[in-house]
Please model this.
Amino acid sequence: MRDRAYFLRSFRKFPRLFVTALPVAGISFLLAACNQSDAPETEQIRPVKVVIAQTRAVSESVVLTGRIVAEEEVNLAFPMDGRLIDRRAMVGTIVEAGEIVARLDPQIAMNTAKAAEADLAAARAVFLQADRVEKREKENYNKGILPRAQYDQIVQQLQTAQAQVEAAQARYNSAQRQVSLTELRTEVAGIVLNKGADPGEVVRAGQVIVQIARLGKKEARFEVPTRLLFIEGVSQSPPIEVALTDNPRIRVTGYIRDIGVQADAVTRAVPVRVTLPDAPDEMRYGATVTGGISISTPAMMEIPSTALTESRGDPAVWVFNTSSEQVQLRPVRVARYNPGTVIISGGLRDGERVVVAGVQSLRPGQRVKLLNTSS
Model:
């Protein structure tokens, strides 16, 4: 700018000198340079892509893989430790209620029962002797021959003997019960799904020996991602099309019966059980199935995730003003993040144009040119 001012002052003071010294082409170049420096900079108009924000119902199709299970599964176990000597129930066999499915070695329990029986017999003998003494001395006490203190002592001995009989009887009953518990019986009719031990093994109290599926309704069990459980349509138990993976033509419509309350620590999925009314015989226990569900959510605004930026650490989008052809940064509230899209719960109105490409190179009030407009 200083060179330009010096040139103009010199040109006004010595015009002829410049006209004589400079060729015409040189004067034209200098004047053009001066004119270019005075011209304002041209505003850069960036091309962008936009979508029209619209509130609409969003339908989501979900397909998950699960397996066929019984509506009720019963785990059978012994209430005590022992060595398994017999397991009659084999996987796939049908058992009836009250049927013996396994046995423990009963020898220890039988020895305990015999010892308890001997103790009971001895206690009864002591009691009978104390009872005869009490009856005989009671007559002497009534006649005044036996002092009261001695009679009270005889009565106390009788009561002690009676208590010992009751204790021995309880031990004997418990021992007999232990003998009967060496036989594992099923209380329900069903089909054997799994076995937990084989004959010859030493098992612990509570260890599952046989798992039985109660005969009746079948279910499909799925592991559902946690994010799907927050969709309102799931809680309304929509129909679920369940089909065999090996033969998709075999299918049945089911309904959600139970949703687990705790997610798996590793997969972050929640178990969901689907009731299958009139499930075909081909859907055997343990068979792999697929479950398809179409979820329709309440009306919401969904935009591409590429439109999302931030303003002071909060989610925001660029909104195109059709009258001024400029963009403004608008804070928004995000209800949910989906793969490739976001659900907006506030900050946008229907019909507004949202920039979805080129958001990182924009500034407030910048003029832009639309490459397309889509809904």
